[in-house]
């Protein structure tokens, strides 16, 4: 069974930093793009950043220059380094991976981790 397990969320003051991690476990035969999304109360889930298997990255305009996405393919892990955090970054952060399991290719989600930025 494929699982994406996130960690690293928490409460931080504005201007602070957090690092999120998401590790994929289970019978995996390949991972393509991985990414982070977030959902604030009363809002739709939105893309934060994505990274391809080759390392190409894409960021939402709201986080460019503050957040950095990276991945360790050997560890099946994607990271999100968040610096200069703002109260508007408060949300539940979800990781996503497009991967091939025993049932074929599919898009998988983690359970989410809460990030709260106080002013």
Structure description:
Helix content is 0%, strand content 61%. It has 119 residues and is mainly β. The model has no long low-confidence stretch (mean pLDDT 97). A hairpin with a 4-residue loop joins strand 7 (67-72) and strand 8. It contains no helices and eleven strands. Strands 2, 4, 5, 6, 9, 10 and 11 form a seven-stranded mixed β-sheet that branches. Strands 1-3-8-7 form a four-stranded antiparallel β-sheet, with no helix packed on it. The protein has strands at residues 3-7, 10-13, 18-25, 28-39, 46-51, 57-59, 67-72, 77-82, 91-101, 104-109, 113-118. It is globular, with a radius of gyration of 14 Å.
Distinct helical segment count: 0
Shape: globular
- Can you give the helix content as a percent range? under 10%
Unreliable stretches, pLDDT < 50, 5 or more residues? none
Distance between the termini: 40 Å
Portion of residues in beta strands equals: over 45%
The largest pleated sheet is described as: 7 strands, mixed
> What's the rounded overall pLDDT mean?
97
Q: SSE order in H/E notation? A: EEEEEEEEEEE
CA radius of gyration is 14 Å
**Would you report the number of β strands?**
11
Given helix and strand content, the structural type is: mainly beta
């Amino acid at each position: 069974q494929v699982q994406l397990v996130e960690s690293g969320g928490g409460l931080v003051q504005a201007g602070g930093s957090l690092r999120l991690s998401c590790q994929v476990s289970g019978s995996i035969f390949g991972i393509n793009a991985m990414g982070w999304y977030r959902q604030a109360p009363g809002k739709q889930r939105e893309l934060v950043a994505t990274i391809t298997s080759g390392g190409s990255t894409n960021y939402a305009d709201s986080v460019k220059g503050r957040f950095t996405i990276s991945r360790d393919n050997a560890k099946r892990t994607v990271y999100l380094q968040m610096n200069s955090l703002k109260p508007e970054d408060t949300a539940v952060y979800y990781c996503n991976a497009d991967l091939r399991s025993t049932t074929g290719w599919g898009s998988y989600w983690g359970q989410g981790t809460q990030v709260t930025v106080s002013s």
